Amino acid sequence: MRLTISRTLRLVALPLAVAGLAACGSDSPTGLRVFTGPALSVLGRGDMTARHMAEVWTRGNVAYTTTWGQRSSNGVTAVGNAVHLWRIDGTAPVLVDSLIVENATTLGDVQVSDDGRLLVVATERQNGSIVIYDLTNPLKPVRRARYQTANTSNGVHTARLARVNGTLYAFLSIDPPDARLVIVDLTDPANPREVFVRAMGNPFVHDVFVRDGLLFTALWHDGMTIWDLGGGGKGGSPSNPVQIGNVRTAAWSPSAAGSAAHNIWWLHDAAGGPYATRFAFVGEEAPGTGGSALNSSNGDIHVVDVGDVSAPREVAFYHVDGAGTHNFSVDEQRGILYAAYYNAGVRAIDVRGNLASCTAEQKAPDGRCDLRRMGRELAAGLQNGSPVYVWGVHFDGSFVYASDMLNGLWKLVATNR
Asked: pTM for the complete prediction?
């Protein structure tokens, strides 16, 4: 996320009927299209108004959230240097503790390793780093190391954990100037080891997704590039990624300079079939328009056919008027993508089956399938109450947790279609 914080958000939802679309929707005076189909039911909210909430990750009965930028209340300004720990086994998340990261002005990603042993937090801007905590006691993380080098000092905007051939790595996207990707071996969490550094992206690399020995990088105006880390048959490895293919996703508007490839998820649908691993989803974070930085957003979800990883191509998209997406979490058992949609709350989208096949009425003028016109919107949450600005979502198998920059951590019931 790259914007200037303002605390005021004015969003009035006054639905107006819209006819002729396959999925339900309505417009508001702000231009936001409100989904009028099924709602994701809210169980409760853990309040956080002292700081702007950023990313969220859950494991078991605990959620970890980061904080971003500065926020002022009653003459007191708090910076985004806190990791909040929440109990989530009840109806509403309950804040139980905090970790303060010294010499950090804002935090970004937070993630728990797949074995539950480590918590990794990205720190941004000056003194950029990742901080690694031991989770022997999930509610009492113990710091093992802070990894900070000249290659991370500009700021670690995102940090993703993934295993390649059994080894745990952190993939760090570094802020400009000299934006780059840094790959760190976490075999010994107390002594992280840098194995790869390369400048990439236009003007930066924002995020990555790693699976089956392939690395997908979101390179903003340069789109999405796929690299071999050992699973693509090109002789690549984490210390020597080999480029396989690239696609520049469509720009969010005809007047835009280019796309803004922000985040990626390569679907592995548990239902199997010929399309189970065919599609990758690229989130686009385009500039907001008008008023407060926290009351508008833009950017689509782009569906890319990666059946041939050497020649990926965009085949479909999902668009919400007056809002843009920011981070995904996918229920691969049911084939449902949950998208954080900033001022539009949370959207649940059916991503099972062939997303590249649609009728003429369901196509955009450029030939891409429109998931909304295909009736693939399943449900929406947090769009009809108090104003929200949802940064991240995390699906844990039963519930969806949404980190709202303005209000705190929401717990929603996931949809079963």
From this structure: 0.93
